[in-house]
Amino acid sequence: MAYGQTQQTSSAQEAGRPQPQTSVEAPGGPFIRHSQPGRAPIYNVSTTAGFGQILTQPLVARPGYFRNFRVTHTISGGSLSGASLAADAPYNTCSLIQLKDAFGTPLIVADGYTASYLIGLYAGAFGLNNGTNLPANLPSYTAYNTSGSAGSYSYSLPLEFAKGYGVLSAANASLLPTLQFNYNSLSAVYTGATVTTQPTIATQVDTDFYWLPEGTGVNVEPPGLGTTRQFLLQQANPSITASASARLQFPRLGGYLSEIVCIVRDSTGARTDGFWPSRFQLYVDGVPLIDSTMNEIYDDMAISFGLGGGVNNASRPTGTIAFSRKTSLSQQSFGLLDTGESFLSTNPGTLLEANFAPAGAGSNSPATLSVLVGQVVPTGALIQGLPEL
Length: 389
Prior knowledge:
Elements: H1 31-34, E1 37-47, E2 54-55, E3 64-76, E4 79-81, E5 84-85, E6 94-100, E7 106-110, H2 112-122, E8 150-158, E9 168-169, E10 178-183, H3 186-189, E11 190-191, E12 194-197, E13 200-211, E14 228-235, E15 246-249, E16 255-265, E17 279-284, E18 287-293, H4 294-305, E19 320-324, E20 344-346, E21 352-356, E22 368-377
Parallel strand pairs: 7-14
Antiparallel strand pairs: 1-13, 2-10, 3-8, 3-9, 3-13, 4-12, 5-11, 6-7, 6-10, 14-22, 15-21, 16-19, 16-20, 16-22, 17-18, 17-21
């Protein structure tokens, strides 16, 4: 018999030999090397009596660490006539959103417009500066119609502020965050409406989370576990009178500031640009850290956040200005990609002030300045640099 018909070129076992297991990394290295990003549902609640009500559905445990909470509000089934959408609609579907950790520490406390729109826009929390930082540019968005029968928008309530940094433990069912939505009145979302059928509000909450790392022979946990970034909307004092000079004091802070957002509303509660001064000064303990024309601030915001007069279908929201301290690596804010080197260090005695000298001659005086800061409160020393490297 010929040689080629009798000689085996390889072992008979080789074709069935198991492939090496590759899902477990070798010991050592950063947390995100050993974990996997996942997504899971939390709840989906629909209510026909939503407007003016409070939703306090408990959260559920997940085997890992919460990175954020993904929220979608959907309106359906309504029958309205003579209605028009308010200026902040649909993002004011909630009058108040509160997210607290398991020990009651406020992580996000703000009105619905600020929490669902401005945090995502200015904090790199949901989308980037290519226009996806505006919910209306996402495929999930459906504009609210004036009959109250259709509309949907999605946003993120962020915990993670750098890769793997700022997450919350999710595996212990007895130590979970709490999330509360205070739905606005229908008349605050739809002005001038005659109601035949009350619209239904459905709220769906999911979470992006990191799975617990697989066994690697070493204890691996997220960097700086216990560190949080907190967003609290508070009012500066005094109020702003048209054309008057005033230095407005921010509420006392304490932590490392990643974003500073200023929101001006007139006496009717409408956002307005009419009261901004020709030059805006931001003082830190009496020292003018920023002394800038408003046009320079608008230009900086276009560079940092991609807001450029319709570029990427993304314009600056009226009545708001923002300063990002998450530009350590670039002129732009890249969401989770930042070293934290430029965070503004404050303590409970630090005084921030905005100088209106003088304020603009806006209508419906006096106006108020609300302040939203992203405040990183570290466990121990602040981790700087890229935690994943």
